[in-house]
Structure formats: C-alpha cells, structure tokens
C-alpha cells in the first residue's frame, strides 16, 4: 500500500513508519516539526529511515487546508494513519487554540482529503482521555464518553464524532484507536517515564501526582504499532445489527469503528517507578503532589473487542518495556 502517516517524526508516527517500511509498504510522512519538545529528537527519529527508497517526507502542517488538499490530489493514498496532533493534557489547559488548529481543523482537512480522493481506510489516534469522568473500570468502547475533563480529551472525542459523520455521509471507512499511556524507546520527553528517568539520573526530585495513588494501563510502543498495522489492513465496515434505538458508541450502520489499545494489565504508578529505579540502579526522590487538573486517578482498558475482531492483545510487560526504554535512553543520551 501507499500510506500517508501524519506526525511521522513523532513517537508513535516514526515507529509506525519504520514498521510499514519493513513490511515493504510505501510511506509518505508529514510533520510540522514544531518545538513543543526537542526538535533534534524528532529529526533523529526520521534519520532511522529518511533514506529508505520507499519513504518520502514533507515538512507540513495538517492545519494547512490548501496544502493538504494538494498533497492528497497528487499522491493517491491507499490508506491514511493520522497521528499528527497537539499532544499533552496539561498543555491544553494553557494553550487551547493550538489544539483547535491541529486536532480539529487539521483533522477535518485529512477527512476532506480522504473524501475527495476516495482513500480506502482512515485510521486515527484517539485517546483513553476521552473516558474523562467515567468511573467504571475497565473502560469499554461501548460506554458513553460525553464528559471529557480536558480540552485535549474533548478534541479527541470530537475527532470520533466528526469521523462518524464522514463515514455516514461519504462512506469513508474510519477506525479510531484509543491509545492507553504509550511508552518506550524514542518516546516524548514530556511524558512520565522520560521525565522520571531524567530526574533520577540527575539526582533531582521527580513530580508524582496524586501522591502516587495513580493506576495506568501502560502500553509499550511496539504493541501499539502492531495494533495499528493489524487494523490498517481491515477497513471498518458497518455493523449489521446496529440499532438507533439502543445505539452502540463503538460501532455504527456506517463503516466506522472504535477500539481500545491498552495493555489490559494496569500498574500502580509507584510500581512503575520501582521498575525504573531497578533498571537505572538508582533510587528516586519523590515529590508527592496533589492531582492535577485534567487528570484521572485510574485508566484500564477493556481490549476484548480488539481480541475478538483481530485476535490481537498487547502483551509486553512493564518490566520488559521499561528495560528496553532504559537501554535506549542510555544509548541515545550517552548516560
């Protein structure tokens, strides 16, 4: 296939691009290379495959309506994976307009491109953050998610709604994947594992919110990528028994699907830190802080739908995943 990967210099986007190239697909990657975090890390990710014969890169912002339209018209994509977005729950509280431009306007530009060039399948990144105030665990795609508690989460929920309208009106197969706390080599410096490793090695206190009383469904990057590739090859189809009298949020009578991708083995935050301490052979200094706005105390994924439809379940343990991250971190930063 010829696949467009947006956010190709990002954590998940670069890892997915590498996997698609290994499987002999042709990939066009776009990224605006913004300075939300260290641009040199983004460039280093691209260096892993920038000279691959099946890879083409363009520095591009998905919020550029005319540019996106031209890209789709000249490229003839078989499938699109949208991983470009302004990330970060806490950042969205102080910089809301950035999220509107990228996560909403940019997403519509992608859908318009898919519509006008008849792309066979759009897979896009949603997030476990859409579950917001939901308290029932594990989180299920079949539950209502109308109470996001951050703008970031609201934009991801909006993506799902907008995708459904395009699937319904124009019969574009769309699949939304709700990622649960992705971590691993080449990760984002603003995420917990990265910040914890940096702080521990520098003998600095690490911020631990809700005083450590947090549970997360930490999901290793390779498991996420494998899930995307698996889903990408099976365009969404209408659900034959979908009913408007009892509507299921995860399916539709349109070619539209939503799936969780999580490890389904939730881990306490303090245990996560213990594993990191063991791998770094150094104790952490904990700065125990209250819960932050926009955050939730626990996330756990019900991945039974992913298992049922694709016979796929993420499987990397936190112990193995953190070990691989530390190996990469020390190599990359020369620690």
Mean pLDDT: 94
What is the terminal-to-terminal distance? 40 Å
Tell me about the largest β-sheet. Answer: 7 strands, parallel
**Separate helix tally:** 11
Number of strands: 13
Spatially, the strands of the biggest sheet line up as 3-2-1-4-5-6-11
Q: Per the principal axes of the C-alpha atoms, what is the gross shape?
A: globular
Task: Name the helix and strand elements from N-terminus to C-terminus, one letter apiece.
Answer: EHEHEHEHHEHEEHEEEHEEHEHH
Helix percentage? 40-55%
Verbal overview:
With 335 residues, the chain is α/β, with parallel strands linked by helices. α3 packs parallel to α5, α7 crosses α9 and α9 packs across α11. The N and C termini lie far apart (40 Å). The mean pLDDT is 94.
Task: Compile the SSE list and pairings.
Elements: E1 2-6, H1 11-22, E2 26-31, H2 39-47, E3 55-59, H3 65-75, E4 79-82, H4 89-94, H5 96-117, E5 122-127, H6 151-170, E6 174-179, E7 182-183, H7 192-201, E8 206-208, E9 215-216, E10 219-220, H8 221-232, E11 256-261, E12 267-268, H9 269-280, E13 286-288, H10 304-310, H11 318-333
Parallel strand pairs: 1-2, 1-4, 2-3, 4-5, 5-6, 6-11, 7-10, 8-13
Antiparallel strand pairs: 9-12
Helix pairs in contact: 1-8, 3-5, 5-6, 7-9, 9-11
């Amino acid at each position: 296939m010829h696949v467009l990967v947006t956010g190709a210099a990002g954590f998940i986007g670069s890892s997915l691009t590498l996997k698609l190239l290994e499987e002999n697909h042709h990939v066009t990657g776009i990224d605006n290379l913004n300075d939300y975090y260290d641009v040199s890390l983004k460039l280093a990710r691209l260096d892993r495959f920038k000279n691959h014969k099946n890879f083409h890169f363009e520095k591009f912002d998905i919020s550029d309506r005319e540019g996106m339209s031209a890209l789709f018209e000249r490229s003839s994509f078989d499938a699109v994976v949208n991983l470009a977005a302004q990330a970060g729950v806490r950042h969205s509280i102080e910089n809301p307009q950035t999220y509107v431009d990228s996560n909403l306007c940019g997403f519509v530009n992608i859908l318009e491109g898919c519509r006008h060039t008849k792309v066979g399948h759009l897979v896009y990144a949603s997030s476990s953050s859409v579950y917001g105030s939901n308290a029932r665990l594990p989180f299920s795609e079949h539950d209502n998610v109308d109470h996001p508690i951050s703008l970031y989460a609201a934009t991801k929920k909006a993506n799902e709604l907008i995708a459904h309208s395009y699937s319904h009106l124009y019969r574009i197969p769309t699949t939304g994947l709700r990622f649960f706390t992705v971590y691993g080599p080449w990760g984002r410096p603003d995420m917990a594992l990265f910040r914890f490793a940096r702080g521990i090695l520098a003998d600095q206190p690490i911020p631990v919110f809700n005083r450590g009383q947090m549970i997360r469904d930490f999901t290793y990057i390779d498991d996420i990528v494998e899930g995307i590739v698996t889903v990408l090859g099976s365009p969404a189809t209408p659900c034959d028994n979908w009913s408007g009298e009892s509507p299921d949020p995860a399916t539709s009578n349109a070619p539209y699907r939503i799936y969780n991708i999580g490890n389904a083995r939730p881990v306490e935050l303090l245990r996560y830190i213990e594993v990191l301490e063991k791998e770094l052979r150094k104790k952490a200094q904990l700065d125990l802080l209250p819960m932050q706005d926009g955050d939730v105390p626990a996330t756990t994924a019900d991945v039974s739908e992913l298992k049922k439809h694709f016979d796929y379940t993420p499987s990397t343990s936190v112990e193995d995943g953190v070990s691989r991250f530390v190996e990469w971190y020390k190599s990359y930063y020369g620690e």
